[in-house]
Amino acid sequence: MTNHQYPDEFDVQIYRDLHDDLSGMSEKQAAFHYIEYGEDEGRRSHQLVDRTSFCTLVPEHTLEIGPFAFPCLKGERVEYADIYSTEELREIAGTSGFDPLTVPVINHVVEPTDLSKIRSRYDGVFSSHVVEHQPDLIKHFQQISRLLADGGSYFLAVPDHRYCFDHFKPTSTIEEVLGAHLDQHKWHSARSVVQRLTLLAHNDAIRHWAGDHGCLGDNPDYPGLTRSQLLRRSMDEFASWDGKPPSEHSWFFTPRSFRSIISDVNSLGLIDLHLERLYPTMRNSIEFWAILTKGRSDA
Question: Which Pfam families match (predicted)?
Fold first, then answer.
């Protein structure tokens, strides 16, 4: 799988056709408008209308990571990896109010944040809201690369932290990503636990796009708790996990920050995945989509 024909990130004809106020613009004017205003306004500029259409780009022979009860991909050549077995996931789904029968058969049970047990190679790897959970982001990409055939691609649905419950958390930087790798982080930090308790926002993307982010410090999961109580709870939670929190958000991305981080890590020679496409967050949605391809970029 070496010849990719993915939709352009920016198609000027689609951009003008979708937005009546741009119909009279030249190609140059429309491109300038998108760079200056359109992306931040969440205007669609490509042929992908939703996550389902993004998933049609994924090849048949693909590994999906962390499907739980909602696999995005189906097919005879699709395999699934999770930290829980099929039976465990079905039990979790049932107790959580979901249909256990929607849990796919898990082909690979892996350790948290470690895919090294998987020996197969795939034309594609897909993950949805997984990458932000990796304590060592660079190691994650390195492990993904080893799962891909030459020219294979990693397809990611990534939450844009500005429009989800991570709104109040600071956008992650290359300094943090590189530091976590050099420090060989294997578990989530105490900081991640504290941030989850003290900086949690609501998770309604439409409200966030409208500028309604709620109140900083009002944790919707623990209404009424004071800042001091939230801080104390974060300390108690971290201690209860013996310094090894099982699942936190370590990274907080925007499309631009993700693009920049991938570029920096690639330039350092730490990964052999280049950013082939990035489809920015569309208005009233919570995520953007990216495609990282193994091998040298032709750009």
Answer: Methyltransf_23
Spatial distance between the Cα atoms of 169 and 174, rounded to a whole number of angstroms: 16
In order, the DSSP letters of 197-248 are HHS-----HHHHHTT----TT--TTSTT--HHHHHHHHHHHHHHTTT--SS-
Q: What is the distance between the alpha carbons of residues 200 and 168, in angstroms, rounded to a whole number? A: 7
* DSSP assignment letter at 35: I
| CATH superfamily of domain region 12-164+252-294 | Vaccinia Virus protein VP39 (3.40.50.150)
CB 63 within 8 A of CB 79: yes
**In the structure, how many helices (H) and strands (E) does the chain have?**
10, 7
Domain with CATH 3.40.50.150 in the chain: 12-164+252-294
Residue 279 bridge partners (DSSP): 289
Instruction: Identify the helix (H) or strand (E) that includes residue 126.
Output: strand 122-128
Residues of the chain with pLDDT under 70: 1-3, 296-299
- Give the pair of three-digit tokens for residue 229: 């109580």
Predicted pLDDT at 297: 64
What is the residue whose two structure tokens read 């109010």? 97
Q: How far apart are CA 84 and CA 288, in angstroms?
A: 26
Pairing of strands 287-294, 148-159: antiparallel
pLDDT tens string 201-241: 999 999 999 999 999 999 999 999 999 999 999 999 999 98
- Are the CB atoms for 69 and 102 separated by under 8 Å? yes
